[in-house]
Amino acid sequence: MSNENTAGAMPGAKERVVKIIDNVDRLPSLPSIVLALMDVVNSSDSSADDAAKLVGQDPALTSKMIRLANSAFYGIPRSISSVSSAVVILGFNTIRSLVLSASVAKMFDGKHSLDMDRFWKHSVVTAMTAKIIVRHLMSVRMMDPESAFCAGILHDIGKLIFSQYMPEDYDAVCNYAKEKEISLFDAENTLLGINHAQMGKILSDKWSLPLDLEYSLVHHHNPQNAGEASYLVNVIHLADVIAHDLGFGMFDDEVCIAEVEQCRMELKIGTADFDKIVQIIEGSVDKSQEFLSTVIKG
Q1: Which phi-psi region, left, alpha or beta, contains residue 31 (left: φ > 0; alpha: ψ -120 to 50)?
Q2: What is the DSSP-derived secondary structure letter of residue 292?
Q3: What is the domain extent for residue 223?
Q4: Is 39 part of a structural domain of the chain?
Q5: What is the CATH classification number for the domain harbouring 169?
Q6: Number of structural domains, the chain?
Q7: What is the SS3 assignment for 18-38?
Q8: pLDDT at residue 1 tops 60
Q9: Does residue 44 lie within any of the structural domains?
């Protein structure tokens, strides 16, 4: 846990954070179906039937998947009526995104100090933007757009722990960030002595997330430290900044740590390409409501 910038820490906040970390086993665990599905996705021997059988064990997930597959969010020109068809057409990593998103939303559906509609809207817009960036850069570097989408959905999950398990403290963090006109990341460090990226690392370790997802949780505010995952993490950082610039933050005028020029340099995105990416996401934002209503709230 970081000891930086703790001079202004709230009385008792550090002890409450330590208690959460010490009781990490009490934090939500990923459902067995999610763990099994990640194994299927990561195995070269897996088939679409393997994934379909897993998802088919959960009627709620089955319903969400088929509804979303038939929505304008994916724009598939044919009707999909079965899980196996959805897996074949959407692909393993898309299914992983859907199942992880639905599972995380269900695990953290308690009372929060954050506006959860805004939290999930930010997460989904960041995810959509990350996916668009990766697709736009396919000629430069091959990367799965759905892995970027999944990383975008999960990148701020550490905030959910603060918001649900330390609601009064995190409400004070948000107010401090507004008052001082600083980022939540910096306000967390100052008042709690730990930030949502570090808390995300604790949860990622508990869940045994793949390294690409873990690095996106941990380094999305400092992509220069992401090592072998730097390409994906730069994508998530840039997507996060774009989402904020379009008005999808935790609250109005939220300050966002932005290293846009460095990210664009790392990703080799010129001004014309950047403007085109922003234009595409502006035209796609309305579709995010379908993902929210079907997967997160459905």
Answers
A1: beta
A2: I
A3: 14-29+111-296
A4: no
A5: 1.10.3210.10
A6: 1
A7: HHHHHCHHHCCCCCHHHHHHH
A8: no
A9: no
> Residue 128 has which token pair?
């959509």
Judge residue 75's burial from the number of C-beta atoms within 10 Å of its C-beta, 0-12 exposed, 13-18 middle, 19 or more buried. Answer: exposed
Q: Is residue 132 part of a domain?
A: yes
Question: Which residues sit opposite 183 in a β-bridge?
Answer: 255
Find the distance separating the first CA and the last CA of the chain, reported in whole Å.
36
* Tokens (6 digits) for 7: 């001079």
**Token code pair at residue 101:** 């998103």
Scan for tokens 């997460």, then name that residue. Answer: 123
Neighbours of 6 (CB within 10 A): 16
Tokens found for residue 182: 């600083």
* Domain presence at residue 228: yes
Class of residue 220 by CB neighbours under 10 A (exposed 0-12, middle 13-18, buried 19+):
buried
Tens of pLDDT, residues 247-281: 999 999 999 999 999 999 999 999 999 999 999 99
Mean pLDDT across 108-128: 94
